[in-house]
Design goal:
Length: about 160
């Protein structure tokens, strides 16, 4: 009697959730997650793991398009056919207010440029710069038509 090999899934069920809202729930072919110490590429059948999120752009691919979501801190659970992202803040690329992100980036760069300033909270300014840069990176990847599909249950976004 021949042993049957386990069948790996062809897709991944991806969920992205913040304390304020359910950002995304859908079927994807792969996902790239910004971990605290670098990016993780996840394909169907990936080994189970839990990782801490960093600040960056989560990229995922559906059958027909690549999509971008900024995520800022939190955790991700990876299972063979499912990825759950619990982020403090997450925004689909099409939701990002570019002018606001550019203004935040400029303020953070100005604060970081004050090398002799004692009253600058360096860590806070650096985190603000990372958040603004991630937002601008994600928004820059979306064409004028937008490639971010509507998500059931997505509500108002809250900025960090």
């Amino acid at each position: 009697m021949a042993e049957s090999k386990p069948v790996l899934p062809d897709t991944i069920e991806l969920e992205i959730v913040t304390p304020q809202r359910h950002v995304l729930a859908g079927t994807v072919t792969w996902v790239e997650i910004p971990g605290r110490d670098g990016y993780l590429g996840i394909l169907p059948g990936h080994a189970a793991l839990i990782t801490e999120l960093g600040i960056g752009v989560l990229v995922y691919r559906t059958e027909s398009e690549t999509n971008y979501v900024t995520v800022m801190s939190g955790f991700a659970e990876v299972l063979a056919g499912r990825v759950i992202v619990l982020a403090e803040v997450a925004e689909r690329a099409g939701e990002i207010e570019v002018a606001r992100a550019e203004s935040a980036r400029n303020r953070a760069q100005e604060r970081l440029g004050k090398s002799a300033a004692i009253d600058v909270d360096w860590n806070r300014a650096e985190q603000a710069l990372l958040r603004a840069t991630a937002r601008l990176d994600a928004s820059g990847k979306v064409g004028s038509a937008g490639n971010v599909p509507a998500v059931a249950g997505a509500g108002q976004h809250h900025a960090a």
